[in-house]
Amino acid sequence: MIDMPVLEVKNLNKTYGRIAACRDISFELWPGEVLGIVGESGSGKTTLLKCLNALVDADSGNVTYCSADGEAKTLGAISEAEQRKLSRTEWAYVHQHHEMG
Fold it and tell me: Global pTM?
């Protein structure tokens, strides 16, 4: 069992021009916990999830993930190849709109 959060977010901020989509978001997610992200339409839920999955770069703040081997990884500091590997092996992200083709 790991003795650190699986996911730690510190002071995450993302703006689009003058619009603050995410402002000073901080939380820890520990093994066995479930976190729900709720809010009104346009409140920044999707932006937050995209920042957490490194699909969108946050303007400031840190996202640290504790991998299955117990290694803490700061998402902004790992390579794109490592981010893709996490997406295939340890992360799950369901997009809000799936295009049928």
Answer: 0.81
Contacts of 81 (CB under 8 A, 6+ apart): none
Q: Where are the domains of the chain?
A: 7-89
Burial call 66-89: b when 16+ CB within 10 Å, e when fewer: bbeeeeeeebeeeeeeebeebeee
Structure tokens at 38: 């709720």
Class of domain 7-89: alpha beta
Separation of alpha carbons 58 and 50, rounded Å = 9
- DSSP class of residue 45? H
What mean pLDDT value characterizes the chain?
87
